[in-house]
Amino acid sequence: MIIRLECPGEHYAVEEISREAHWDGEWGAEPCISDVHLLVHRLRNCPSYLPNLHYVAELDGKLVGHIIYSASKIVDDAGKEHEMLTFGPLSVLPEYQNQGIGKALVQFTFAEAKKLGYRAVLIFGFPDYYPRLGFRPAAEFGITTSDGKNYDPFMACQLYDGALDGIHGRYYIDPVFDDLKQDDVIAFDKKFPPKELHIPVPISVLLDRLPQPARAAFETSDEFKQKSLKYVTTKSEREVAAMDGIDSQALEIIRAVTKEHGLLWGK
């Protein structure tokens, strides 16, 4: 496998990789087109985009994955800005997933980012996976989201020891991440070959297997209303275990059901 910078002529191919990798990535209960390939397209035109950290993975002459970075910042209580990084999307073609390609892209680009003088990378990602790559909850560093909140998917990874020492505050990413309307996604998607819409797995396939106290924990939570089974994977095992009615038996059932549907959840 070769990891190298993306070339200008590869924009369409890289967007298509993100389209394929995240086609089933939406968390709602209703079918829709994933917005990830539009995000890649728009990021390239943002001042925050960092082409010197946009790397692709090539295997036997074929592009199979990529990772895209953009600049972000932490603003402390005094209003001072501290430049940081975020990556995303990280995309690997479905037939090449679970082979270490995504991990290799992250580790390679972290080393490059460190050479370029960056301190740390902050992401919103799967909370029981990314700690394996060195991420820790952002709350441990005294960092919150832009609205002053914290939750397990919000994580930070120092690129060297002590990189975040003395840096606390609110975290901001490019507004492009929050401005991806489905009408725009549908229009953009027409430049790619037609693809059957993904039908999300309903969360009911899990609820029907859970004991009543655990089922009630999900059904009485507004957060899980109108969500698919995949949405559960955005919650850490710690967060789910803290819900009323969730015991060790329920955790094992959640782990089993998500695995049956090709989803990874839990530690």
Summarize the structure.
This protein has 267 residues and is α+β, with helices and mostly antiparallel strands. The chain has helices at 11-21, 36-43, 101-115, 182-189, 204-207, 212-219, 229-232, 237-241, 248-260; strands at 2-5, 55-59, 62-75, 81-92, 120-124, 136-137, 143-144, 154-158, 169-172.
Integer tally of domains = 2
Low-confidence stretches: none
Structural class: alpha+beta
Annotated CATH architecture of the largest domain: 3-Layer(aba) Sandwich
Task: Give the helix level as a range of percent.
Answer: 25-40%
Shape summary: globular
Write the CATH homologous superfamily of the largest domain.
Gcn5-related N-acetyltransferase (GNAT)
Question: Kindly, what is the distance between the CA atoms of the first and last residues, rounded to a whole number of angstroms?
Answer: 28 Å
Number of strands: 9
Task: Describe what this molecule looks like in 3D.
The protein has 267 residues and is an alpha+beta fold. The protein is built from nine helices and nine strands. Helix 1 runs antiparallel to helix 2. The two termini are 28 Å apart.
List keywords for this structure.
267 residues, Aminopeptidase, alpha+beta, globular, three-stranded antiparallel beta sheet
